[in-house]
């Protein structure tokens, strides 16, 4: 098996430096763990995924889930019009009791470089 490197820059379709376009919405990465309940009912994941994707569309969001191997079970990439909408989405998903989330706000690469270069 060949080795590979996977970083936040490798996610397809991201705004900012990736794809060469400025991001105009809330780009959030949500590392997710299955709860005990989520693991006990793991066979229902396809149905839960459909309901979750429908909820994202209902709220005007674009959701791309990436199942992972490592410290998290899934990384949700959510594109929403604003942080309030994304919070509503994840509170509703979290209320089902199947997932525990962590929020990561994605910064455009150029913004980060600008801040980094200003450090004395």
Average pLDDT reading: 80
How many strands? 5
Poorly predicted regions: 1-25
In terms of DSSP E residues, the strand content is 15-25%
Radius of gyration: 16 Å
| Morphology call | globular
Largest sheet: 5 strands, antiparallel
What proportion of the residues is helical, as a percent range?
Answer: 25-40%
CATH homologous superfamily (4th level) name: Ribosomal protein S10
Return the string of H and E elements. Answer: EHHEEHEEH
How many individual domains?
Answer: 1
The CATH topology is Alpha-Beta Plaits
- N/C terminus separation: 43 Å
The helix-and-strand class reads alpha+beta
Count of helical stretches: 4
CATH architecture: 2-Layer Sandwich
Q: Report the CATH C-level class.
A: Alpha Beta
């Amino acid at each position: 098996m060949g080795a590979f490197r996977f970083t936040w820059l490798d996610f397809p379709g991201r705004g900012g430096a990736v794809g060469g376009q400025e991001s105009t919405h809330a780009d959030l990465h949500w590392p997710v763990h299955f709860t005990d309940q989520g693991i006990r009912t793991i066979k229902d994941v396809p149905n839960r995924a459909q309901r979750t994707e429908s909820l994202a569309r209902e709220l005007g969001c674009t959701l791309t889930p990436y199942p992972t191997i490592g410290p998290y079970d899934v990384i949700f990439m959510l594109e929403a019009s604003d942080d309030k909408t994304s919070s509503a989405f994840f509170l509703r998903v979290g209320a089902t009791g199947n997932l525990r989330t962590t929020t990561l706000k994605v910064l455009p690469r150029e913004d980060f470089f600008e801040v980094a270069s200003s450090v004395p």
